[in-house]
Design goal:
Mean pLDDT: 83
Distance between the termini: 35 Å
Low-confidence stretches: 357-363, 392-416
Structural class: alpha+beta
Oligomer: single chain
Number of helices: 14
Helix content: 25-40%
Strand order of the largest sheet: 5-6-1-7-8
Radius of gyration: 21 Å
Shape: globular
Order of helices and strands: EHEEHHEHEEHEHEHHHHHEHEEHEHE
């Protein structure tokens, strides 16, 4: 008889804010812990420009949500403390966490910069019971790395992720099949993974208000209102069905990318470009850190009905430049997006070359070479003194480019 899978989902609590707090307290143990006051990681508070990337638990009490504008957040809470992000730092904490998690299983999928799935099916017997091991992981991360996580324990990725979203912070939750009716079905529709506002609105109009309502609904009725593919997926999710495996990590030279699932649909070009700039920062920083460059840039979109679109272009010269990635991503977006509301935006790079590879090109100007050298220098300064030490001038003025930082919103996917 085949053994049922055992999956853990690790989710850092208020990741960017937690990592920022840990870093500041390490530098100055007397510093104010940002996690204890209304605070957010985001754009520039002086210009009120950018979006909220992460917020503290006290900030949540003011109704502040991830991905809303700083203008809106500061209107809700004028005393909100806003700090800029430092992705070089966050990537380091993410990698430290993954290294710790690898002590428990080789089967790890980095779902986002602050989320990971662990397939514990073949290794759980080495450490103890599922709850004991999950608690051990939480306690080790807090003791050794200084921040808290939630751990969801379940037989598949969907249920593990749902479980980790239960009461926070620093909790372990289970969601086994015999617990679905009690723990998941009473939850509102929006609590189900990949149910956004538009889909929830359509289901509520036909009398569906909880996950249990969707689970019990006739699939043909759902298909008539939501479309075949999306209705089938959501019906399966509502019934706790998910056969998606914990994916192996891609080879380092295959590609680099991030994507973000936003808490609300995005339907305007400027906001989408905000996200693309943030993604370009994380992807560019990783390319430079690994001393590689890309030849191809791809923008990916997914709408609330699970329809995917993507558009890519080949660069005239391999690059690791945030600026070049961002400029080409916006160009791609303008070419193929018709402003249909989207829940997920992604940026991918491929055709990776090691940095030692040099190719003379008529397209590579002295300006582009200087830009590349500048961004390497900026990475070096940020690595030594933190992102606060240097940032783009355009982030300091209201009419400048959007904030260079992004979070995961709640789900920043698979950073290859």
């Amino acid at each position: 008889m085949e053994q049922e899978r055992l999956i853990f989902h690790i989710d850092v609590n208020s990741a960017f804010l937690s990592w920022e707090s840990v870093y500041r307290l390490k530098k100055d143990p007397q510093a104010l812990d940002l996690r204890t006051i209304p605070s957010a990681v985001g754009g520039d508070a002086s210009s009120r420009h950018g979006i909220v990337l992460a917020k503290s638990t006290p900030a949540k009490k003011y109704g502040i949500s991830t991905a809303e504008t700083l203008v809106s957040a500061l209107r809700k809470c004028p005393e909100l403390v806003v700090v800029p992000s430092r992705f070089d730092l966050y990537l380091k904490y993410s990698r430290k966490m993954l290294a710790l998690l690898s002590d428990y299983t080789p089967d790890i999928e980095k779902f986002s910069i602050d989320e990971a799935f662990l397939d514990m099916t073949s290794t759980i017997h080495l450490f103890g019971s599922p709850l004991e091991v999950a608690d051990q992981i939480r306690e080790r991360i807090l003791r050794e790395l200084g921040f808290t996580v939630n751990v969801g324990v379940a037989p598949n990725k969907l249920l593990a992720k749902m479980a980790s979203d239960f009461e926070k912070p620093n909790r372990t939750h289970t969601l086994f099949r015999d617990e679905i009716a009690e723990k998941m079905w009473p939850l509102p529709l929006r609590s189900l993974f990949f149910v956004g506002g538009a889909a929830a609105g359509k289901m509520e109009r036909i009398g569906l208000h909880t996950i249990g309502d969707v689970a019990a609904c006739d699939l043909q009725i759902l298909k008539a209102h939501l479309g075949n593919k999306y209705a089938t997926l959501i019906h399966q999710y509502a019934n706790g069905i998910d056969d998606d495996p914990v994916a192996e990590r891609d080879p380092i030279n295959k590609g680099y990318g991030n994507s973000i699932t936003l808490p609300q649909d995005v339907s305007d070009f400027d906001t989408a470009c905000q996200v693309l700039l943030a993604l370009s920062e994380t992807v560019g920083a990783r390319l430079r850190e690994d001393q590689v460059r890309c030849n191809c840039v791809c923008v990916e979109l997914r709408d609330w009905q699970f329809n995917n679109q993507s558009h890519q272009l080949t660069l005239p010269v391999p690059t690791d430049s945030t600026t070049i990635l961002y400029q080409n991503a916006c160009k791609l977006l303008k070419e193929f997006w018709d402003l249909t509301p989207v829940r997920l935006i992604g940026l991918r790079t491929s055709r990776i070359l090691e940095d030692s590879y040099e190719q003379m090109s008529l397209f590579e100007t002295e300006k582009s070479r200087k830009l590349r050298d500048l961004e390497h220098a900026v990475d070096s300064i940020r690595g030594k003194y933190g992102t606060d030490s240097i940032k783009r001038a355009s982030f300091l003025k209201e009419d400048g480019v959007v904030d260079h930082a992004v979070s995961k919103s709640k789900h920043l996917h698979k950073d290859e």
